[in-house]
């Protein structure tokens, strides 16, 4: 039986529903195979991510190209995300008020500290960068790409989500907490201080992050990202205090937005 055949007879409604769901799932798998670090993929790579025959993968990519969700470079034989993704991305951003509300506060913070400021949200698996503000006039600056997916436990932003989200909403967190008393204690400290600091040893970049809430719900993590020489270590530096203050102001603004009466 081919990999696109429907299951056993379930009546007209069941027969139509299950293949439709499978089609959506497979299309989503293809689109999700593209990342910031892998913006171009071959048909073989997409076939592997889909787990079907090459003919089936080609049929899905053809349909996605017709919907402008994929592009195909015939010369390079490479697929990439299509222009309709930008439209969907813009619509998703409009649907997340925290991005627009945080913008002016982030820009003000950039002017105050002269470092890159980043906003990340949780996508169900890890922290994803949705806004970046920085000073393009600086000779040396740390650039962070929109859409970057950050480490759950090694990035300052990821640790904010680990600290404030229920453990069962963070894949694998409970196991990591059971195996690492140090991580458990670090998350307790983040909850106490409302600040997370991280200093990767391999690239000389330091980030500090603070939570942004809407009521009791964690919506985002705001972070300062710079070099280890420009961003002080620890969670009580002037930069850390400025970040905490700014994140708290965005939280307060979101609280006002939430309580506005329906119009």
TrEMBL record:
Domain (IclR-ED): residue spans on this chain: 84-256
Superkingdom of origin organism: Bacteria
Residue ranges annotated for the HTH iclR-type domain, each copy included: 21-83
Matching SUPFAM superfamilies: GAF domain-like, Winged helix' DNA-binding domain
Presence of the UniProt keyword DNA-binding in the record: yes
Pfam families: HTH_IclR (PF09339), IclR_C (PF01614)
Keyword DNA-binding carried by entry: yes
Keywords from the UniProt entry: DNA-binding, Transcription, Transcription regulation
Xref: PROSITE patterns: HTH_ICLR (PS51077), ICLR_ED (PS51078)
Name this protein carries in UniProt: IclR family transcriptional regulator
Originating organism: Streptosporangium longisporum
Lineage: Bacteria, Bacillati, Actinomycetota, Actinomycetes, Streptosporangiales
């Amino acid at each position: 039986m081919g990999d696109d055949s429907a299951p056993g007879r379930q009546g007209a409604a069941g027969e139509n529903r299950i293949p439709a769901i499978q089609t959506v799932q497979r299309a989503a798998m293809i689109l999700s195979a593209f990342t910031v670090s892998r913006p171009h993929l071959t048909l073989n790579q997409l076939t592997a991510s889909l787990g079907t025959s090459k003919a089936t993968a080609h049929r899905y990519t053809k349909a996605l190209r017709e919907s402008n969700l994929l592009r195909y470079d015939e010369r390079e034989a490479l697929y990439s995300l299509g222009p309709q993704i930008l439209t969907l991305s813009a619509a998703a951003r409009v649907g997340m008020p925290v991005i627009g509300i945080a913008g002016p506060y982030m820009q003000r913070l950039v002017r105050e500290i002269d470092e890159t400021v980043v906003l990340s949200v949780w996508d169900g698996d890890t922290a994803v960068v949705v806004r970046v503000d920085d000073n393009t006039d600086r000779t040396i600056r740390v650039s962070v790409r929109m859409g970057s997916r950050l480490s759950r436990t090694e990035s300052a932003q990821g640790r904010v989500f680990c600290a404030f989200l229920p453990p069962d909403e963070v894949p694998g967190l409970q196991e990591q907490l059971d195996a690492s008393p140090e991580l458990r204690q670090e998350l307790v400290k983040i909850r106490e201080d409302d600040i997370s600091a991280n200093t990767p040893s391999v690239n000389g970049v330091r980030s500090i992050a603070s939570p942004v809430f809407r009521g009791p719900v964690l919506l985002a993590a705001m972070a300062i990202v710079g070099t280890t020489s420009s961003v002080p270590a620890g969670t009580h530096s002037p930069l850390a205090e400025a970040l905490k203050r700014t994140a708290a102001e965005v939280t307060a603004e979101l609280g006002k937005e939430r309580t506005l009466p329906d119009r």
